[in-house]
Amino acid sequence: MPELPEVETVRRGLAPVMEGARFIEVEARRGDLRWPLPKDFVERIEGATVSGLGRRAKYLLADLSSGEVLLMHLGMSGSFHVLNGGDAMPGNYYHARGKLAAHDHVVFHMSNGATVTFNDPRRFGCMKLVARDRLEDEPLLRALGPEPLGNAFDAAMLAQACRGKKTPLKAALLDQRVVAGLGNIYVCEALHRARLSPRRRAATIASRSGAPNDHAQRLVEGIRHVLNDAIKAGGSSLRDHRLTDGALGMFQHNFRVYDRAGERCVTPGCKGTIKRIVQSGRSTFFCPVCQK
């Protein structure tokens, strides 16, 4: 499933063609995504202008002139593709996908001539319309923790969230109530950068009172750095993630631990070998030598 860097990459690809543009025509070719499309979906969107395109955790949020917000999630295999004036954006991947047109479930025709297509073979993605003044009460969003790239996210906040937790540190970071948008890949990578074991108790990054220690500071820095690096690289394309022009993300070539079991640790001076273990049914990759 796409994580924060992949969703942010998609947002940055869609923003130039969606922000300030009006929905001229909306095609809802298949409404049974993860949940059925909202009632009168097409009628409620057509004619509206996108005043802004934001992101909350792994969700895309299109602010509409109608007073509603179009909330979108990529699910397991969803992707957006942009054609500008009938031609694909730089790259020719969209045309290569023509044989998968049966999975083009929602198509937005914008007033600037761009066509934005949502393709989702597994149909775990979703689209939902929410009143702007009710957005904070939206069930999909209200329990989410802080944005890891936001100004409010710091060592003190993370330490308080992990205070007293007996769960492994990796499990705590995957909890969207603790920090929003992180998934298996970037938690593994951030823990390696922070030199912290995924098996250590989450509470060990805080004092009994919840004050942050050096572990918390290193972890926050590791999270921020790996997310920013991944966004710059266009995210990680392991299976389904593609940029809006069809190009692949490249961060998978920069993994330090993820999917590198049996390979040498890249930490300078470390002679460890990357190990794979299973935690809560998920693969965890880490270096048992330099991650303590």
- Rg (CA only): 20 Å
Strand order of the largest sheet: 1-7-8-5-6
Query: Which H/E pattern describes the elements?
Result: HEHEEEEEHEEEHHHHEE
Report the helical percentage: 10-25%
Got a strand count? 11
Alpha plus pi helix count: 7
* CATH architecture field of the largest domain: Alpha-Beta Barrel
**Terminal Cα span:** 28 Å
Please report which band the strand proportion falls in: under 5%, 5-15%, 15-25%, 25-35%, 35-45% or over 45%: 15-25%
The outline comes out as globular
Find the CATH topology of the largest domain.
N-terminal domain of MutM-like DNA repair proteins
Structural class: alpha+beta
Mean pLDDT: 91
Give unreliable regions as ranges. Answer: 87-99
Mind telling me the CATH class of the largest domain? Answer: Alpha Beta
CATH superfamily of the largest domain: MutM-like, N-terminal
Total count of domains: 2
Biggest sheet layout? 5 strands, antiparallel
Fold and architecture overview:
This protein is of the alpha+beta class and 292 residues long. The chain has two domains: 134 residues, N-terminal domain of MutM-like DNA repair proteins, CATH 3.20.190.10; 132 residues, Helicase, Ruva Protein, domain 3 (Orthogonal Bundle), CATH 1.10.8.50. The protein is built from seven helices and eleven strands. The strands form three sheets. The chain has a five-stranded antiparallel beta sheet. Helix 4 packs across helix 7 and helix 6 packs across helix 7. The two termini are 28 Å apart.
